[in-house]
C-alpha cells in the first residue's frame, strides 16, 4: 500500500523519521511530504494557501498507482480531507492523527499570531496543557530547532469542499489529547467542530494517549496505530 504522510504545522517530511521505518518494514511504500513553503526557514511563503497544500498532496496521489492511505497530523488533517474531496475514489483510508476533517468555510487556525506571510511556532504557553503531554524539555528544544514558519494562508484560508463522496472514505481518527470515547460523545452530541465526522459513513476512533505530537512523544505506538488502520484495508 502507498502511505502518504502529511505533517502538521511547522514541520517537514523529517518529522516522520521515527514513524516511517516500521511502515516500510511491514512492506508498505511510504511517502513523507514536505509541503510548499516548508522547505526551509528561508523559503518564500507569500501566496501559499490551504488549497496550495491540498493541490500539492493531490498531485502526489495522482502520481501513484492504485489506492492510497492518507495520514494527516494536526493541520495536515484538513489537507488530507481536501484531498479526499478531490480524489474520493483513490483514497483507501484517511487517518487523522490528533486531527480531523475540516468543514466547508472553516479555517485550520486563524488565531495563531502571524508575522507577514509567516506563522512562526509560538511560545509554549500559547498551547493547552493537553497539547504538551510527554513533550519534555529535550523534545521541545528539538522541535523548536527544527520548526519552520507555517504559511499564513494555510492557517487562515477557508476550506472549500465539492464532492460528498468524501464522506464514504473509510476514516480512522487516532485520538491523543482526548479519548476516543470523548470524541464519540462529541460527535453524537452534534458538536460543530466534529460535524464532518458525524456525516461520515465509516469511521473509527482509536486511543493513543499522549500530547499533540505523538510522532515525537510516542513514535512506535503511532506507527503501530497507523499499521493497524492500514491493515483494515
UniProtKB/TrEMBL annotation:
Residues 3-225 form the AB hydrolase-1 domain. GO terms for molecular function: catalytic activity. Pfam families: Abhydrolase_6. It comes from the Bacteria. Gene3D superfamilies: alpha/beta hydrolase. This is Pimeloyl-ACP methyl ester carboxylesterase.
